[in-house]
Design goal:
- The structure holds two protein chains of two kinds.
- By secondary structure, chain A is mainly alpha-helical.
- Chain A has one domain.
- Helix content of chain A is about 65%, strand content about 5%.
- In chain A, the strands form two sheets. Chain A has a two-stranded antiparallel ribbon with strand order 1-4.
- The two termini of chain A are about 20 Å apart.
- In chain B, helix 11 packs parallel to helix 13, helix 12 runs antiparallel to helix 13 and helix 14 packs antiparallel against helix 16.
- Chain B is built from 21 helices and two strands.
- Helix content of chain B is about 75%, strand content about 0%.
- Chain B is globular and about 80 Å long.
- By secondary structure, chain B is mostly helical.
- Chain B has a two-stranded antiparallel ribbon.
- Classes of the chains: A mainly alpha, B mainly alpha.
């Protein structure tokens, strides 16, 4: 879309929404939020960027192909399940570690890994659909 | 967050999980993992088969180990995330599920090898191998899950992967077939979802063993007949049973031949498997009530499938009708519900997975050699390669259920089970369908193989690549092996059927306390 206002605002809006999507992703374990909704927010952020600056700008900014991002998310989610094999607990059991970084206890878990995987799957899938629809004919995936 | 943690020890698995139990979740989980890696590497066209074929071989290994484990120890259960059933999603493998998963793994491996010649660089770029592994994740998950909503989810996974495989290359004809396929399959899965929502409303649980227990306890006042009828319709549509089978001949001849082979072997069998699982384990009495309907649908399916095969002149369409005809025999076995009938249906399903894959792959080679799939134009295949002609003839005998090949014994079992309860018309339908199939495939052999190639007929590529010959030869050999030595598989199929008819061991594996 050829609008100066949108083109000026889009980078800031995109950055803000991406940051917010990570916030939603991380708070999702105990409060409303999570990987799916976080991924949707991130995908809409990138879609706004695409509307303002064109599809190729988004592809360049993403660096990886959206489908590869999705695949990496699926891979992370699977790995989160397979980690429980080493601890003799059933598939997909949540495993927690509490390392202390700079005096702050950080709760890391396979549940979070799985949620990050969901986030990436949703971002990749929605963005590849959005880019295919925004892109011109013949500029498919 | 200051609240004291609730005591969850009664709802959690607290004993360590023995490593052998992992084989229950490994087939689908492994396929997802390998599929995601292949999807990340989908630009590396040369690397794709090098990674995918070992991954599929590992899948077969996992399936085989699971089968051995189940054969020795009975049904095995693992619940996701340490939550005890019915809260956690249970994966439960009994003999039936393990047998189907093993046969499915073999089919996928054969497809992966055959795809070396059938799927070119373009098809690989579109992601044939990632889709194949995701399809196998859905298929193995459907065979091994013990939760009915989870079964629906795996149906969706395999359906989405199958859409991808169906439009590989995006030709106009393929899109046409894919739309019919997609629409009718979505209707079937929606029916399945509606039935499952209704079921959850009635029972408040989705774990199949739990439902079986609750249904047995409160059968008199629950509307189970409605549920059973909805499930029969949904799974019948998936399995391409008459009169909801028209989507199959409309779509199975359009994709690449290896994709057709995978669909013919796997997708309809998932429908049959789901029908067996749900109708035998959850609603045995309702199945009894519906048995006449299922038997009539089965008889119509097999006769009309065989007639359709007789009427076709395109080899791929003909094979689509042969798939449908086989589904009829399995439905007949499900309708009988006795160990003989159901065991025959299980055996026949395994036979059909192996033989239909072999037939579709052979059809691919025949089309390549003759330059056409049209029976009126093809000819002289026997002159070109006597070995290939012999292997095809073995598969034709097997699909027509003639001895000494694998199709013969399960049909004997189903016919005998039908005669035992006096359903002579069902037995007659099975024999008639077998006779018609024999004629249909005899016609294929005479026209395309035996008849000398005439002048002016299109000539195709003369060579048969080893990667195409290997799976065909292996599956023809398997059909011969199970035809000559049917005893072990007969015994396993019958004990699998007994496990479905009396699910006590299945339920005990999910709820160890229940007697």
């Amino acid at each position: 879309m050829n609008s100066l206002i949108l083109r000026t605002v889009a980078p800031f809006l995109t950055a803000l929404m991406l940051l917010f999507s990570v916030f939603v992703l991380l708070r999702g374990h105990n409060e409303p939020g999570g990987g799916f909704i976080g991924g949707l927010i991130a995908a809409s952020a990138l879609a706004i960027y695409g509307i303002a600056n064109g599809v190729s700008a988004v592809r360049k900014a993403l660096w990886f192909h959206p489908m590869s991002i999705s695949a990496f998310g699926l891979f992370l989610a699977c790995v989160a399940g397979f980690l429980s094999m080493a601890f003799a607990v059933p598939f997909m059991t949540g495993l927690w570690v509490y390392p202390v970084v700079l005096g702050v206890e950080v709760a890391l878990s396979t549940v979070m890994l799985f949620d990050i995987g969901v986030y990436l799957v949703v971002v990749g899938a929605i963005i590849s659909i959005a880019l295919a629809m925004e892109g011109r004919e013949g500029e498919g995936p | 967050m200051a609240a004291s943690p609730a005591d969850l020890s009664a709802a959690l698995v607290l004993s360590p999980v023995p490593p052998a139990d992992w084989f229950v979740v490994l087939p689908p989980a492994w396929c997802l993992l390998a599929g995601s890696v292949l999807l990340m590497l989908r630009k590396k066209r040369r690397l794709q088969p090098l990674l995918a074929i070992p991954a599929l071989a590992l899948l077969v290994l996992f399936d085989a180990l699971l089968f051995a484990h189940v054969l020795e120890n009975g049904p095995v259960t693992m619940v996701m995330g340490r939550w005890l059933p019915p809260f956690g999603i249970a994966f439960t493998a009994d003999l039936t599920g393990a047998l189907f998963a093993l046969a499915g793994g073999l089919v996928a491996l054969a497809g992966g090898i055959y795809a070396l010649t059938d799927i070119d660089g373009e098809g690989r770029r579109y992601g044939f191998y990632p889709f194949l592994l995701l399809l196998m994740a859905g298929v193995s998950g459907a065979f091994l899950t013990g939760d009915i909503f989870n079964l629906y989810v795996w149906f969706e996974v395999l359906l989405i992967a199958s859409f991808g495989l169906l439009v590989l290359g995006s030709e106009r004809r393929q899109i046409d077939g894919a739309i019919k396929y997609a629409f009718l399959n979505l209707v079937a899965t929606t029916l399945f979802l509606i039935a499952t929502g209704y079921l959850y409303g009635i029972f408040g649980t989705l774990n199949m063993a739990d439902i079986a227990l609750k249904a047995a306890a409160a059968r008199e006042w629950l509307p189970l007949m409605t549920l059973a009828a909805l499930y029969v319709l949904a799974f019948g549509m998936k399995a391409a049973a008459f009169p909801v089978n028209f989507w199959l001949p409309a779509s199975y001849h359009t994709p690449r031949i290896v994709v057709s082979a995978l669909f013919a072997a796997l997708l309809t069998k998932v429908g049959i498997y789901a029908m067996m699982r749900v109708m035998m384990t959850l609603f045995p009495l309702e199945r009894e009530e519906l048995s006449l309907l299922i038997a009539a649908a089965g008889a119509a399916t097999m006769i009309l499938g065989a007639l359709g095969a007789l009427a076709q002149s395109d080899l791929r369409r003909l094979l689509g009708y042969a798939v449908i005809s086989g589904i009829g025999v399995m439905l007949a076995g499900v309708s009988l519900g006795s160990p003989g009938g159901l065991g025959g249906a299980i055996f026949y399903a395994l036979h059909s997975m192996i033989v239909m894959t072999g037939l579709y792959l052979a059809a691919g080679v025949a089309g390549r050699l003759a330059g056409t799939f049209d029976l009126n134009g093809a000819g002289g295949l026997h002159q070109r390669s006597a070995l290939f002609s012999g292997l095809s003839l073995m598969l034709f005998f097997a699909v027509s259920s003639l001895p000494p090949f694998s199709g013969f014994w399960p049909k004997v079992m189903v016919v005998k089970a039908a005669l035992d309860i006096g359903a002579w018309w069902l037995a007659a339908a099975i024999l008639l369908a077998g006779f018609l199939t024999t004629i249909a495939f005899g016609r294929v052999y005479l026209l395309a193989y035996w008849r000398p190639a005439g002048a002016g007929r299109p000539a195709g590529d003369g060579r048969i690549p080893a990667s195409a010959m290997l799976p065909i030869a292996a599956f023809a050999a398997l059909a011969l092996l199970f035809g000559l030595l049917p005893e072990p598989l007969l015994a396993v199929a019958q004990s699998a059927a007994r496990g479905l008819i009396d699910p006590a061991a299945y339920i005990r594996s999910v709820f160890p306390g229940v007697t």
